[in-house]
Amino acid sequence: MSEERQHAEQEERMSTVASEETNGKGEGLLERIAYRIVNTHFIRSMYRTPWPTDRRSRLMVVLESMVLHLHPTKLPRHAVRVCYTWCLGGLSFYLFLVLTVTGILLMFYYRPTVEHAYWDMKDMMNVTPFGRVLRNMHRWAAHAMLIAVWLHMLRVFLTGAYKPPREFNWVVGVTLLVLTMLLSFTGYLLTWDQLALWAVTVGTNMARATPFLGHEGPFGPQLHMTPYNDVRFALLGGSIVGENALLRFYVWHCLGFPFIVAWLMAIHFWRVRKDGGISTPL
Amino acid sequence: MATHRATLERPAAKAGVKTRRQFLTDTFAILGWGFFWTIMGIFGWIFARFFFPNVLFEPSPIFEVGYPQEYPIGSVQKRNGVWIVREAYGFFVLDGTCTHLGCKFNWIDAEQKFKCPCHGSGFRKDGTNFEGPAPRPLDRYKIYLGEGGKLVVDKTSKFPGVPGKNSNELYPESILRI
Predict the structure, then answer these.
(1) Which residues in chain A have their CB less than 8 angstroms from residue B53's CB?
(2) Exposure string over A6-39, b if 16+ CB within 10 A, otherwise e
(3) pTM for the full model?
């Protein structure tokens, strides 16, 4: 690209909105203020494209923006039919965002230690400003997300949207489902009450029976697996659900799994587009 | 000096024979990737091993449960989550976890049996399952006399209950005869 061309594009990008029909004449006060703001250098510098005036330039705005490019530039009409997808994937993602925001807020008051965890949770419910609302948002959104994810899978199955070329995205989706359940399971322990403790005791006892890697599983004893070196030990950081297990589940819940989920979701959404968008009703 | 010039020319690549350049490129590739994957392997091991702590701050699986004379003959007492049973022929230790789904069960003295509140499994005093859904007798742990004359339970030494087998006969070494 020549230097003059680059310069011209820069000029075009910085050109004001009021070029053709929208030159601000005879508009209301609010419109004129809006144009004044939109036409500032700062706002124009946020976009890599000139003000959209036709079909192509509107597409370019979406393509050339980091945030907007996550959306498709255009949608087939059937894709916005609510009764086809029920927006279940979108709802799952929305609930994930709710969980991220409320979860980060909960972290400001919660200490994952045997001494503090339960009482921090009780304080959250009783004395922290809006703590009860935020904790319950987190809890209900977690339940809702699991339901939404399951129903999303059901919808994809019933509409045959797992068929080639979308079979890899089905696999990514199933992985996301498992991770959603793991997020649920790890979050369950953090209240550190009797229900949480015994639920996770029973849940992680299942890991004892893992083939090869569990000390009570097939071929486990032959591989010298004991309660102190098997996969359950690595999950809990000990042989019982205690201090180490609480901290481990906390880190997995707040950092480990959300990172993996966010990464896989990016791939999942991208593949939906690349594999031809939302499947077409027959 | 025509001969001298000729020696400076690069020798033609022969089939099956590497040129010097090719040899060096291959060597560096093997060394480079070998180094890379070795480092990756080492860090893979480090990350995996990191999840297995060397020092635990949890109750010791080997613990004392008092002097033998604290246990009258025929008594059943719970200590640190395990049941200490004292019979005329000696002591043995039963794990406090039901073999059905892992609930904690109770000793009912009037009926001389262990009874699980979850699903109604019943066990005789020696740990044999006789009612309810429990599939096998209770697990036993090793018990011995410590140096100070106190009883010591070792939970790292386990005698798993086997369906249809009486643990007294299957594991005579699980009984401390004093």
Answers:
(1) 237-238, 244
(2) eeeeeeeeeebbbeeeeeeeeeeeeeeeebeeeb
(3) 0.80
